[in-house]
Amino acid sequence: MGSTSAHNNEGLGRRDLIKRSAALGLIAVPTMSFLSACASGDSSSDDKVEKGEKSDKNPLAVNGSAPLEIVIFDGGFGTKYAEDAKAVYEKTYPEAKVKFSATQKIQSVLQPRFNGGTPPDLIDNSGAQQMDMGVLVGKKQLTDLTPLLDAPSIDDPAKKVRDTLRPGIVEMGQFDGDPVWIMYYAYTVYGVWYSQTALEKLDATYPENWDDMLALCAKAKKQGIAGWTYPGKHPYYLPFSLYPFIAKIGGNEVLDAIDNLEPKAWEHPAVKAAFEAYYELVAKDYILKGTPGLDHRGSQGAWARGKALFIPNGSWVENEEAAIIPKDFKLSVGAPSSLDSSDKMPFGTLWASGGEPFIVPSKAKNVEGGMEQLRIMLSEASSKSFTASTKSLSAFNGGTDGIELSDGLKSGVAALEKAGTNVVNPRLQDWYVKLQKEQIGVAALGEMMAGRAKPAETIKKIQAFADATAKDQSIKHFKHQ
């Protein structure tokens, strides 16, 4: 893992050096509007389609002549994989009229339909305008997907769908007890993304400790290259590398306490150390100038064009920026660097989990059709379609045989292998969307990384946000079981 002169027997480590060096001062950011409540809607669609006849070939009792409506988030993964799966549904049920649409404005397009009791049958609830999962679950607006999970898989009827999924996928869809409200279709590797070619040009390797990270950023700066960039308008991307960094320093139980909204969870020394380390990037001017004003595409574009070495992101970035990432880029992902030798978890610890959350609304007209479309998507053929078109893994545990893996995907698979059991899965972004995105992301981390707030005041602000969320009785609360 490497060591530095700071790792000596007198106990002077990175934390001590950070405490001595972190001292700079640095706009109120306009709040982003996310779905914080979703009315239950008195006007219900009582005209649900009649169920079809249940059989071995139709285990969910789909009405083959009933219409089906699907709405997909048009983001980094595109829509081809979903359209391919839709074509399979149409071939299986040729009498069904399938309406398919894509949007980046999930909340503004669909919230009125939820309120009116007329939601689509299947939704990819993702993106910056994602509807708050915790609210939807708490308001009983989602269908329990257990029948889907217990149905026979497309490829092997002797196996249930649940038995074909990657570890942790089913549990991610559970918020409180046994029901499974969400099917996370993608399997995302989060971390610090970079160009291996860019590092080679600097005669460098990926830094496995924070001293080496800072040294590499200093070296890049002399060449006119920034160390880091991030989506300044969407700073909730920062946790993709920051949260596993916190877990690495203090143990996964620190993230569990944060997820559980425990008092003083954010005051843990591991949080303080991680925040102060990231603040050094700001203090030493290693962040690409103008980053606070960039959205995700702007920051990713600057990074892909070589203006910055590192960006915290998810594995969708390879597909999202495929048009501009150079062929010789050698896209790679790194786990968080070690802070110092006292870290509780080894180098290689990273965040990987289900992404792209699909839901079937409880008031959908064709609930069975929505679940059947998901069953089709969770087949090997559909998984291969997803991986081939998005350069990302799916929730299906397999689906890569015979596919030439892209650089980023190969790197992600290698990172997962190195991590082994040291994979963390923080749940704030699933359980409390407003807290994670608007408050922790924009109002706190965004301010700190723009240089407008110091780590101590940022932690204090975040703890206050978390405490308010914990006390808000209008919000359904969740805990790790």
Q: Could you explain the architecture of this structure?
A:
It is found in: Cell envelope. By secondary structure, the chain is of the alpha/beta class. It contains 19 helices and 10 strands. Strands 1, 2, 3, 4, 5, 6, 7, 8, 9 and 10 form a 10-stranded mixed sheet that branches. Strand 1, helix 2 (80-92) and strand 2 (98-103) form a beta-alpha-beta unit. The longest helix is centred in the C-terminal third of the chain and has 17 residues, at 433-449. The model is unreliable at 1-45 (pLDDT under 50).
Order of helices and strands: HEHEHEHHHEHHEHHHHEHEEHHEHEHHH
Sheet/helix structural class: alpha/beta
**Which outline best applies?**
globular
What is the strand content?
5-15%
Distance between the termini: 33 Å
Mean pLDDT comes to 90
Backbone CA Rg: 23 Å
Low-pLDDT parts are 1-45
- Total helices: the number is 19
Helix fraction by DSSP (H/I, runs of at least 4): 25-40%
Question: Tell me about the biggest sheet?
Answer: 10 strands, mixed
Number of strands: 10
Region (Disordered): 40-60
Protein name: N-acetylglucosamine/diacetylchitobiose ABC transporter substrate-binding protein
InterPro entries: Bact_solute-bd_prot1, Chitin_NgcE, SBP, TAT_signal
Keywords: Signal, Transport
Summed up, what is this model?
The protein has 481 residues and is α/β, with parallel strands linked by helices.
What is the element layout, followed by pairings?
Elements (H helix, E strand, L loop, with lengths): L13 H8 L46 E6 L6 H13 L5 E6 L2 H10 L6 E3 L8 H6 L7 H5 L18 H4 L10 E13 H6 L8 H13 L3 E3 L10 H12 L1 H8 L9 H15 L12 H9 L3 E7 L2 H4 L10 E4 L15 E10 L7 H11 L2 H11 L2 E2 L12 H13 L3 E2 L3 H4 L1 H17 L5 H17 L10
Parallel strand pairs: 1-2, 1-3, 5-6, 8-10
Antiparallel strand pairs: 3-8, 4-6, 4-7, 4-8, 4-9
